[in-house]
Each structure stands twice: as C-alpha cells, then as structure tokens.
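Marked as duplicate of an earlier ticket. Keeping the data here for the record.
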Amino acid sequence: MNKKVGIGLLVVILLGILGASGWWWHSVQIRQRVLNAVPPVPALDHVQDQTREAIQETMARMASSGDALPALRHLAQLYHANGFIHEALHCYEALEWLDPNEPKWLHLKARILAGFGEVEPALASWERVIEWAPDYVPARLQFADTALKANRIQEARTAYEAILQRWPDESYALLGLARIDFESENWEAARTKLEKLVEQTNYRLGYDLIVSVYERLGIQSKAREIRGSRIGSGGYRDAPDPWFDELIHICYDPYRIAIVAGTIDDQTLAHDLLLRAIKIEPNEVAYRLQLVSLYTDRGDTAAAMKELRIMTEIAPEFADGWVRLSAFQKQQGDKEAAVRTLLTGLKHCPDSPTLRMMWGGALREAGRLEASIEQLQMAVQLRPNEAEAYIELCQTYVAKGEVQTGLAQLRRALQVEPDNPAAITFLAFHAISTKNKSEADRWMELVHRQPRVGAEPSEYLAHAYRQAFGRMWQAR
C-alpha cells in the first residue's frame, strides 16, 4: 500500500473514532444531566397499574443511552397528565435548560404555576412563550385570563385587544373584554360585545353574562326570553389548548379521563375517552351513566339502553340505572317492560325515592289511586326536601277528586322549592278556573317571573285568564 494513502486512511479512521467517541461522550453527558434533573419517583402504590408501568418504563428509558432527553419530555407530560403536579413542574423546569428551543414546556409550566396562584412567574413565563411562539393563541389567552384573575385589568385588556387585532373572530378574547366591561359596570359596552359573542358562538359563550347585562339595563323581556329558551347550558368551558389538551391521551386515571370527557365539545373524542375510562375501571357506574347521557344527546336510544342494562347487571343497587332504563322503555311505548324494570329496581333499591315516585305515577295511570298515594307518600318520606313527589301526590289526589288535599301538596312543594314551575303553574290555573282573580293575579305574577315556565304553558294560562276575567293579564 502506498505510504501516503495508508497515512490518510489512518487519519480518517482516527477522526471517525474521535467523532464517535465525542458523540458517545455527549450522549453520556446529556443522560447524566437528565438523571440529575429528574425528581425522585413519587409513591405509586395508590395509582392505576397502567400509570405505574408507564412511569417505570419511562424511567428505564431515561437510564439508557441516547434516549434520556426524549424520555424526560415524556415523563414530564406523563406526570402532569396523571396528577403528579409537583414532579411535572420539576421536569418542566429541567427541560427549560435541557431543551431550550421548545416553548411548550414553558407554557405547561406556566399553567401549573398559575394553578398554584403564582401569578408573577406564570405571566413572565407566558411572555417568553409569546415571544418564541407568537402564533400560539392559547398562550396569549392564558396570559390575559391570568392577568384578569389577578385584577391586573389594563394588562389583561391590552392582551385581549392584541389577540383580536390579529384574530378578529377569537371568541374567548371577546369574552375577556366583555367580562372587563361587566366588572366595571359598563353595561352598554358589555352588551355590544356579548350580543356579538352569543351570535358568534350560538350561546356557547356569554350566555349567563348577557342575561345579567339585560337585567342590569332593565331589559327584562330579553333576559326572560333567553333564560326561558335554555339555549345555553350556562357552563363555561376553557379555550382549546392543544399543548395541554393532548395530555389526556397519556392519562390513565379514569376519573380524570371522565372529567375531561364531560368538558369537551367533541362528542367523538368524549365517547372514546369514556370507553377508555370504562376499560380501566369497568365496574364504575358513574362513567357508564355519563356515556348514557352522551348517547342520549346523540339520539342513540338503543346504545343508551344497552349500556343501562349492563349497569343494572354490574351494579343492581344503583337506582339511577333502573330509573333511566324504565324511562327509556316507557318513552318507546313499552309500558310493560317499564313496569317490570321499576319493580325489579325496587327489589334491589327499596329506599330509592325516585323509583317509588315513578311506581306511584305508573299506578295512578293504571287507575290504582290508593296504591299510588301509598308509594308517593313513601317517596316523600324518603326525600322530603324535594318538590317532585309532592307534585305527583297532588296529581293523584286531584285524580281521586280530592282537590283541596292535592293543593295542600303543592303548597308543601313550594315550601321546599319556592317558585317551582309545575306547582305555580297548577296553582295559577286552579285560581283562574275558580275565578279567584286576586289569587290568579298573584300566581300569574310568579309564573311571569319564573324563567323555567315554558312558552306554551304561559300562553295557555294567558288565554285561560282572558276567558275567565274578560281581559288580558298585565304584568306589574
């Protein structure tokens, strides 16, 4: 071999060895830095097997060569997703200097700090996130919301306005500005923003606030109209935050999974999450009942009934399973099956006031009025502080011809639930039908003020009042 060629080849080999050893040494250093930064493993005796196994597997990956930093990223999110918040915070702080080009860790850290009430460091972290990832709107919203909660009004207003300048249709920023106007009692400004917001979101956001604003402005008719229509649920939902929301996919705590499933708009994802929760804890009926509600919202009665049958098998002592199943069967016109379900449910849950009340109603429909009264009185004894059983009793007494005894039950209902819509509607109709104008006026006023009375019964009462007294009823 030519001497020069041999020397050149030797140099290449040496450089390769040095490069490989340099890469190896760098890998060792990274692994050591990661291991030094990781907090002690928390007690895992009380957690789900899947959580324990995932944490242990990630720790093992961290100790292996070349995989330490990706493992730390996963561990931080794994801790966060499964409720080990202090450990997650420790990991995010380590990632700040081990993985400094990724703003996600700073954002997730800021969410934890804000949850702990550490406003200043949280806002400082979000300022850095906004600088590094200016198009990540959730970080901007979190900054503004946290500033608003800390009563740093001008900072919050500036942040919301900056969002709307770049993203004019960002509903949560508009809601933030409306809240600022509301808190400062600037009702007209709040009204302008909220009317735009509810139209933009179909009342998903701003529902409660706009009703309150209309009341402050004396526009009671609009407030009543919105409340009566029940357009919105009244429940606030956080703005989507993909960096945070993706944590649920590595959560193994069924309770946390079910909570998230109940707070998201995506029904497909909610369904998948509930199935995961049930797979982890198949005998927990709360998750199955939540799934039944989801199927009901979808209009999938068959799936809901199938789930309810499973519930009555795995937890026969859980009265709500029998209640919901019987109600579905009756709704589908299968009264015999509904009655069988009620009676079976009562064998397993004899102290269920709802089952007693439903059975009492079924007996009344069958003309067995004395037996109905007996069941409904038992329901009242089991749950004396709710109005529904008293109202059912009233209907049975009236069917029996004992009107005054029935009215007494309605008054008992109003003692435990003043302004109960069914009770005041019935009492208003009774006063009108007996042409007791002073009583009719009193009950009609209560009906008018109660937003839970629907438009149809209100119109029926107004028509009956005009026929009885020769003029339209006028609100005071």
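See parent ticket for discussion. The chain has four domains: 32-37+56-228, 251-348, 351-411, 419-476.
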